[in-house]
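Lab notebook, bench 4. Still working through the backlog of constructs that have no structural model yet. Next entry is a single chain of 194 residues. Request: give me the structure tokens for it.
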Amino acid sequence: MTNAEESEDRSLPKYQLLVNERDLVFFDCEFTGLSLDNEIIEIGFLKTKPGTFDVVKERSIKLRPVRIENADPSAMEMNGYDEEQWKKEAVDMKAGLEEFLKYTKDALLVGHNISADLIRLEKAFWEHDLRPNYYYKPLDTFSFAWLELRDEPTLTNFSLRELASYFAIDRGQAHRGIDDARTTYQIFLKLIGK
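Model written out:
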């Protein structure tokens, strides 16, 4: 190996786990609105083992919004936000994000239309001086569904609701972090033939 190759090699990140050896964390976030300025108010997730996809942890983390006055009332209604419930159960944003990170180390994140959740999640990490600890390449069930079912005439937008209906999956309470994470997990299993 030349000196240039050695120098180049040292600058590349080293990943000790192969992608197929990583836990998967199926997650969903709920927000106070659709703007990037809106806050995360809930993170629901299921952590599964690689290969078997057996669930080893399931959790919902309610986060206390700081700028509730900026919340979109229709988003809050859709998410089932209840001020009294959040006062009792919610934690501050940084504590909630740290709690989520306890379960994501080296994992592959999986979501439905994951970019919407990831951009806000990573924005919140940076705002609270935290850094992602999960694998940098996520999986998106929207993309899987499009690849597998794009010729299915009954599917028009591949939304979580539409795919859950197609696969006869009970969604629980729609637009709640944990229930949407469970639905994403069930859709994933259907799409991979489990």
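Notes after review: Residues 33 and 72 are 5 Å apart (CA to CA). The chain has eight helices and five strands. Flag for follow-up if needed.
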